[in-house]
Amino acid sequence: MNFRLNFNSLTTRMMLLGVVFLIAGALGRVFLLTDYLRDDVTKLASDQLLTIANYVAQDVNHDILERRDLLTRVALRLPLALLNNQQQMQQWLAERQEMNPLFALGMFVLSAEGVVLTDSSAPADRGGLSYADRDYFQQAIKGEFAIGRPVIGRAVKVPVLPMAIPLRDAAGKIMGVLVGISPLDSPNFMGTLRAAQVGSTGGLLLISPRDKLFIAASDRNLVLTATPNEGEHPQHDQAMQGFRGVAVSVRSGIEELAAIASVPASGWFVVARLPSSEAYAPVTSIRRYVLKSTAIILPIFLLVMVLVMRRVMRPLMNSAHHADRMTLGEIPLEPLPVVLNDEVGHLTAAFNRLLAKLLESRAKLDHMAHHDTLTGLPNRWLLADRMKLALARAQRNEGQIATLFLDLDGFKPINDGFGHEAGDTCLREVARRLSEALRSEDTLARVGGDEFVILLSDLREDARDSAEMVANKCLAVFEQPFLINDQSCRLGTSIGIALGDGRCLPEALLSAADHAMYQAKKMQGGRFCWAA
């Protein structure tokens, strides 16, 4: 049987018209769908980048505030009579450093002339050195708390961040300056910035506009290097002038999304950046997939037009109708029905798999934004949301909530002695034990390196007794030793408890529990204290 292409044939014209429509429709879907998805991916990636940038900025801000508060407390309690007794002053500082080692490289006291009087380390590494030329000394000697320019330490020869506060006598006269030094790579300082990952090729930057300096970065080669000169990078110039949010920038010829968030306590800002090519990789894959699938379907479509066009087009039109309703929001996103196991069915199944992957990816991103990646516990943001809901219920029902702030005792020696992997294993075990000691309706969150918060909601008149019972349960889980690298290790915890009702603010309640926890630590730990 000979087959000749007859352009006068209506069948032939319909087939050719169908082919033209198929090709035009495929191209239309490629550009319209990918443009639509590009906008969605841009928004989703921007929101996620901004969430990461804000989270890291808040974590850095918390680290700065912790150290500022510690310096303030030490400065207020420092006996000025010991300024002339180096040995006793060194012992006094060493005790404070051991109790709360936020400044990993110690604290030291400078005279009014900028010369080191004593150092918390023994033997002192800085004895007799002059720091009169340092910016933080010059600012602190004028009576202000100062965050110095990150530099290579004069005594320790590693990148450090100094902080300083004036020492005043009873009359308010400045007698000297108390300085605390944190290495930029300290495990308990800016750990989230170093641990957080932005895609496969993205990264984080911590920038000081005052010093025009990269303080920390995922790319360690940028640490303590100068920022671009004005005019070299327009988006960087905007950030230096105060822009905060998400923008598209070009760095070294590569387009990237950049989210910028402030660190209020220091005047710094965090930049989370992700190359556009990586952010839009799913869109590129979808475009390539649609084009490839169209090339496969085209010859089949010709056969379908001749043989079973109506039979095949009916499920395709049904699928299109379902897809339209989903895009219009009339029905939820769900797999399209696969009527026949043919090419249209294969395409529908592939779309369903793609839809499942997109929904799974969105769920994973949402989970990552609200949970701690190490322990799987709620993070600080999810805890804040649950505290707001619990406080709203407390106000409505005239009830109370309790916040227990836990900080591990003895974790740093394990982390330093056995390594970070062992420390991570230990933290996961702590999270497991604490979770088993709580009710399913209670919230256990990890809010810092070795800090956990427990939220007890819907409490009544026996709120205080309930909180103490939970605190005792938490203390009890540490009675059993932890097995680390086949060695039995002891851990403890210090707990601060604060009660609140519907009129309380979440931040105030957490702060009160935090302060109570520090009181428990001052009492040698392994106990709980109530907020005043």
**What is the count of β-strands?**
18
At the fold tier of CATH, the topology name of the largest domain is Beta-Lactamase
Beta-strand content: 15-25%
Supply the number of structural domains.
3
Indicate the CATH architecture of the largest domain.
2-Layer Sandwich
Structural class: alpha+beta
Please, what is the average pLDDT? 84
Helix content: 40-55%
**Cα separation of the termini:** 98 Å
Shape: globular
Low-confidence stretches: none
The total of helices stands at 14
What would you say this structure looks like, in words?
- α1 (about 10-75) runs antiparallel to α7 and α11 packs antiparallel against α12.
- It is built from 14 helices and 18 strands.
- The protein folds into three domains: about 10-40 and about 280-360, no CATH class; about 55-275, PAS domain (Beta-Lactamase, 2-Layer Sandwich); about 380-530, Reverse transcriptase/Diguanylate cyclase domain (Alpha-Beta Plaits), CATH 3.30.70.270.
- The relative contact order is 0.08.
- With about 525 residues, the protein is an alpha+beta fold.
- A hairpin with a 4-residue loop joins β13 and β14.
- The strands form four sheets. Strands 1, 2, 3, 4, 5 and 6 form a six-stranded antiparallel beta sheet that branches. A five-stranded antiparallel beta sheet has the order 8-7-11-10-9. It has a five-stranded mixed beta sheet with strand order 13-14-12-17-18, sandwiched between helices.
